[in-house]
Specification:
- It is a single chain.
- This protein is an alpha/beta fold and 721 residues long.
- The chain folds into four domains: 63 residues, Single Sheet (N-terminal domain of TfIIb), CATH 2.20.25.90; 252 residues, Rossmann fold (3-Layer(aba) Sandwich); 193 residues, Dimethylsulfoxide Reductase, domain 2; 119 residues, Barwin-like endoglucanases, CATH 2.40.40.20.
- The protein contains 25 helices and 29 strands.
- The strands form eight sheets. The chain has a seven-stranded mixed beta sheet, covered by helices on one side. It has a six-stranded mixed beta sheet with strand order 25-27-26-29-24-28. It has a five-stranded parallel beta sheet with strand order 12-11-10-14-15.
- Helix 8 packs across helix 12.
- It starts with a strand and ends with a helix.
- The structure holds ligand MGD (2 copies), iron/sulfur cluster and molybdenum atom.
- Molybdenum atom (MO) binds next to loops.
- InterPro entries: Asp_de-COase-like_dom_sf, MoPterin_dinucl-bd_dom, Mopterin_OxRdtase, Mopterin_OxRdtase_4Fe-4S_dom, Prok_molybdopt-oxidoreductase.
- Keywords: 4Fe-4S, Iron, Iron-sulfur, Metal-binding.
- This is Molybdopterin oxidoreductase family protein.
Length: 721
C-alpha cells in the first residue's frame, strides 16, 4: 500500500495504491479484460477532499502491459522498430550526439522536457542539458501552458507561484472569477472549493462557451460572460476602468503596496463600457455588475489557458493582476489573484531549470550570482554554463534545419507528445523527419515516439519515488507502489549513463532522494527555495499532517509549513512593491470587433473531462476512449444551419496551415461566431494542424485559443471514408 498522488493534473489529488495480490481479481477490469496491478482509492486531502475524477480513477489501467513500451526500441533501415539492449541503444545515442556536437557545435542538440516530470527529473534534465550536452537549447511543454501567467506574475509580483495561497482559502471566498478556465472538466474535485462563492451568488465565469463550469453559475449562483475569443484583455481593461471611474479601488493599498497607478489609470481611460461592449460583446450592465461585485471584497480572480494561450496572453494575465491589485485583493487574507497551473508538476517543472532561461530555484540563467551559485553546487566553473536558450516553438522551428546555420540536428524528448500538442504540427512533423537523431523517453508509444530513432522505456508514476509541486506550490511526495517492468529504466539512470558516455563533469546520482538533496542546495536562496526540504522531511511533514509550501528555507522550525500565503508582508521586487504594468490592446483586436470574415469562424481549442492533453495516455484507457472516441466540433445550431450541417455531420475545417476532418456536435451554449475542438486527438483529427506558430513576444506562448477556419460539409466519398 502506498500513498501517492494522481499522475495527471496539477490538482494532484491524493490517492492510495494497493497492489493486487496474486489470485485476487480486484484490479481486473472485467469489461476490458485488462489486469491493473494496483487498485486506486482516493485519499482525504485538502485539495481533492477525497474526490477523484474519471482520469484518476482509471489511472492504474495504463500500468498494465498492453500499450506500454517495455524494451528499448531502435528504428531499423526499413522503418520498423526492433527491441534492443540498453547498452546498444545508449551507445548509438551517445555516438550521434558526439558527432552532431563535433560537426555543428553543442547547440545542434536540443532537449524538450515536460511538466509531468518529477522535480528530481526536471532538475536533472536541466543539469544534463547544460553540463553533459553543453547546449543552451532546452525548453519544455510548460511553455505551452504556464508561460504567459508566469511572465505576468514575475513582472507584477517579482515571483510566479500559480496560487500564492492555499486552495482551501477559496472556500471562504464571496466571489470567484474564473477567466478562461473550466475546472469542472479540467479539475473536477476543485469545484468543491467554488461552493462557498456559489452559495454567495458570486461565481463569475468568463468563457465563449457555456462550459460545465459556466453552468455552475446558473440559478442565481453567479454570472457567465461570453466575450468574443481573444478579447479578454479589453474586458479586463474595461473592468479596471469601471472600478477606477466608480471609485471602487483600494487607494490605501495602491499607495502603500504598488507602483505605476498613474500610468495604469491613463491606459484604461479609453476603455469605457460601451466601447468594451462593442469589442467583446459583453453588455454594459453585466460589466457593471461584475465590477461592483469584485469590489465588495473577498474576491479571487483566477486565470486559465483560455486567456493565457494567446499572442497577448501575458498582457491579459497582467490586466487580471492589475484589476486584483487596484482592488487591494492580492496578499490579503481575503482575496487574491492566481493562475490555474495545469500539468501534474506544472509548478515544480517551471522552477528547477528545464526552461530555456532558467537555473534551479527559479533563478535566471543570465544572473551572474545565480550562475556562480549553481556552478558551485555542480562543481564546475560558471563560464562552462551555456547562456539562455530559446522558447519551445522557436526551438521546434529549427528542427531538421542545416546544423551549420544554427539548426537542431538531434532532439531528446522527455515527457511530451509534441507532434500532437505543438502549434502548426504539419511543420513540426517535417522538422522531426529531418533530424539526425530523435530520442523519445516514454512509457507509451505515442505519436512522437512513432517518428523516433530510439525509444527508451521509463517507469510510471506508481513505480517511482520523487516529488511533485501542486498548483498551490505545495511540495508532495510521489511514492512507488510496485516495481516497473524489468527493462524500464528511470530517466535519472538514463541521464547518468549518457553523461558518463559523454565525459560530462559533475556527479550524476540516480537515487531520487539524493537528487532532491542536490536540488535543494541548488535552489537555496533562490525564489523557489526548497533548501529546508528532503524526502525524509516531506515524509515527516505528511505523517504529522503538515503541508510544505515553497519557499521552504533551511532552518525552518519543526512546525513550519513553509509559505502557504505569499505577499502578505511584501512582494518579491527589491522594494517590496507590486508593479502595475500598463498594457495596451493590439490594434488588430481593437479594430476588428466583429470577429472573422463572413465565411470564417473563430476556432478555439481546449479540453474534455475524460482525456488528458495529447491523449497519449488516456486514449489507451478503454473506458475513457469509449466515452469520447473522436474529436467533435462544438458548433452553435444556428451556425450549423447556415452552413447546412445537421447534428453529427462530417466536416472539413481548413485554413492556410492545414485541414482537419471531424464530425460536429450541436452546442447551443457556444457563441455563434465560434467553434470549439478538443486537442486530445491525432492524425486527421489533430486540431493543431490549424493552429499557427504565432507566439506571445514576451512569454513565447503560442496562440492556441484563437484561429480562423472555414468549415464545410464533407459530402459523399470524403464523408464516409
Ligand atoms: N480533463 C483534462 N483535465 C486537464 C487537462 C487535460 O488535458 N484534460 N490538462 C491539464 C492542463 S496541462 C491544463 S493547462 C489545464 C487547463 O485547464 P483549462 O484552462 O480549464 O482548460 P482549457 O479547456 O484549455 O481552456 C479553458 C477554457 O478556455 C475557453 N477559452 C478558449 N478561448 C478563450 C478565450 O479567448 N477567452 C476566454 N475567456 N476563454 C477561452 C475554452 O472554451 C475552455 O472552456 O487542465 C489540466 N487538466
Ligand atoms: N490546440 C491546443 N494545443 C495545446 C493546448 C491547448 O489547449 N490547445 N494546451 C497546451 C498545454 S497547456 C499543454 S500542457 C501541452 C501538453 O501536451 P504534451 O506535452 O503533448 O503532453 P502529454 O500529452 O501529457 O504528453 C506527455 C507525454 O509524456 C509521457 N510522460 C508522462 N510522464 C512522464 C515521465 O515522467 N517521463 C517521460 N519521459 N515521459 C512521461 C506521457 O506518456 C506522454 O506521452 O499541450 C499544449 N497544446
Ligand atoms: S482532477 Fe486531476 S489530479 Fe485529480 S483525479 Fe482528476 S486528473 Fe487526477
Ligand atoms: Mo497545460
Amino acid at each position: 500500500m502506498s500513498d501517492t498522488h494522481c499522475p495527471y493534473c496539477a490538482l494532484q489529488c491524493a490517492m492510495r495504491l494497493t497492489p493486487v495480490t496474486a489470485g485476487s481479481d480486484d484490479g481486473f477490469d472485467k469489461l476490458n479484460h485488462r489486469a491493473a496491478p494496483v487498485t486506486v482509492s482516493p485519499r482525504e486531502f485538502p485539495t481533492n477532499r477525497g474526490g477523484l475524477c474519471r482520469k484518476g480513477w482509471t489511472s492504474a489501467e495504463l500500468l498494465a502491459r498492453p500499450g506500454r513500451v517495455v524494451h528499448p526500441l531502435i528504428r531499423q533501415p526499413d522503418g520498423s522498430f526492433a527491441e534492443a539492449a540498453w547498452d546498444a541503444a545508449l551507445e548509438l545515442i551517445a555516438e550521434r550526439l558526439r558527432a552532431a556536437r563535433a560537426t555543428f557545435g553543442p547547440d545542434a542538440v536540443a532537449v524538450f522536457g515536460g511538466g509531468g516530470l518529477t522535480n528530481e527529473k526536471a532538475y536533472q534534465l536541466g543539469k544534463f542539458a547544460r553540463l553533459a550536452l553543453g547546449t543552451s537549447r532546452i525548453d519544455y511543454n510548460g511553455r505551452y501552458c504556464m508561460s504567459s501567467a508566469a511572465a505576468a506574475g514575475n513582472r507584477a509580483f517579482g515571483l510566479d507561484r500559480g496560487l500564492p495561497f492555499r486552495v482551501t482559502d477559496l472556500d471562504e471566498a464571496r466571489t470567484i472569477m474564473l477567466i478562461g478556465s473550466n475546472p469542472a472538466d479540467t479539475m473536477p474535485p476543485f469545484t468543491r472549493h467554488l461552493e462557498g462563492a456559489r452559495e454567495a451568488g458570486g461565481l463569475i465565469v468568463v468563457d465563449p462557451r457555456q462550459t460545465t463550469t459556466a453552468k455552475l453559475t446558473q440559478d442565481g449562483a453567479g454570472i457567465h460572460l461570453q466575450p468574443a475569443p481573444g478579447t479578454d484583455l479589453v474586458l479586463l481593461l474595461g473592468l479596471t476602468h469601471l472600478v477606477i471611474a466608480e471609485d471602487l479601488v483600494d487607494r490605501a493599498f495602491i499607495d502603500a503596496r504598488t507602483e505605476g497607478f498613474a500610468a495604469l489609470r491613463r491606459s484604461v481611460s479609453q476603455w469605457w463600457p460601451e466601447r468594451v461592449a462593442s469589442v467583446t460583446g459583453v453588455p454594459v450592465e453585466l460589466q457593471r455588475r461584475v465590477a461592483r461585485r469584485l469590489a465588495e471584497g473577498g474576491a479571487y480572480l483566477l486565470t486559465g489557458r483560455g486567456v493565457e494561450q494567446h499572442v497577448d496572453g501575458t498582457d491579459t494575465a497582467t490586466a487580471a493582476i492589475n484589476l486584483a491589485l487596484v482592488l487591494g485583493l492580492v496578499g490579503s487574507a481575503d482575496g487574491g489573484y492566481g493562475t490555474m497551473t495545469g500539468q501534474g508538476n506544472g509548478q515544480g517543472g517551471r522552477e528547477h531549470g528545464q526552461k530555456a532561461d532558467q537555473l534551479p530555484g527559479y533563478r535566471k540563467i543570465t544572473d551572474l550570482a545565480a550562475r556562480a551559485h549553481v556552478a558551485a553546487v555542480w562543481g564546475v566553473e560558471p563560464e562552462t554554463l551555456p547562456g539562455p536558450g530559446i522558447p519551445a516553438t522557436e526551438l521546434l522551428g529549427l528542427l531538421g534545419r542545416p546544423g551549420a546555420r544554427g539548426g537542431v540536428r538531434c532532439l531528446l524528448v522527455h515527457g511530451s507528445n509534441l507532434l500532437v500538442s505543438s502549434p502548426d504540427v504539419n511543420a513540426v512533423r517535417a522538422g522531426l523527419a529531418g533530424l539526425d537523431l530523435l530520442v523519445v523517453c516514454d512509457f507509451v508509444f505515442n505519436e512522437t515516439a512513432a517518428l523516433a530513432d530510439v525509444v527508451l522505456p521509463v517507469p510510471q508514476w506508481a513505480e517511482e519515488e520523487g516529488t511533485m509541486t501542486n498548483l498551490e506550490g505545495r511540495v508532495l511526495r510521489r511514492q512507488a507502489a510496485i516495481a516497473p517492468p524489468a527493462e524500464a529504466r528511470s530517466e535519472l539512470w538514463i541521464m547518468a549513463e549518457l553523461a558518463r558516455r559523454l565525459d560530462a563533469p559533475s556527479t550524476w546520482p540516480t537515487d531520487p532522494a539524493v537528487v532532491f538533496d542536490e536540488l535543494a542546495l541548488a535552489s537555496a536562496g533562490g525564489i523557489a527555495d526548497y533548501s529546508g526540504l528532503s524526502h525524509a522531511r516531506l515524509d515527516a511533514q505528511l505523517a504529522a499532517g503538515r503541508a510544505a509550501y515553497w519557499p521552504f528555507a533551511a532552518g525552518a522550525t519543526d512546525e513550519s509549513e513553509g509559505t502557504p500565503r505569499l505577499f502578505a508582508d511584501g512582494f518579491a521586487h527589491p522594494d517590496g512593491r507590486a508593479r502595475l504594468v500598463a498594457v495596451k490592446v493590439r490594434s488588430e483586436i481593437a479594430d476588428v470587433p466583429a470577429g472573422p470574415a463572413d465565411d470564417e469562424l473563430t476556432l478555439i481549442t481546449g479540453r474534455l473531462l475524460g482525456h488528458y492533453q495529447s491523449g497519449a495516455q488516456t486514449r489507451l484507457v478503454p473506458e475513457l476512449l469509449e466515452a469520447a472516441p473522436e474529436a467533435l466540433l462544438e458548433i452553435h445550431p444556428a451556425t450549423a444551419a447556415r452552413l447546412g450541417l445537421g447534428d453529427g455531420a462530417a466536416v472539413e475545417l481548413s485554413n492556410e496551415h492545414g485541414r482537419v476532418e471531424c464530425r460536429v456536435v450541436f452546442a447551443p451554449g457556444i457563441r455563434p461566431d465560434t467553434v470549439f475542438l478538443p486537442f486530445h486527438f491525432a492524425g486527421d483529427e489533430s486540431v493543431n494542424r490549424l493552429v499557427a506558430a504565432a507566439c506571445d513576444p514576451i512569454s513565447g506562448m503560442p496562440e492556441f485559443k484563437r484561429s480562423r477556419v472555414r468549415v464545410r460539409a464533407l459530402t459523399g466519398e470524403a464523408a464516409t471514408a
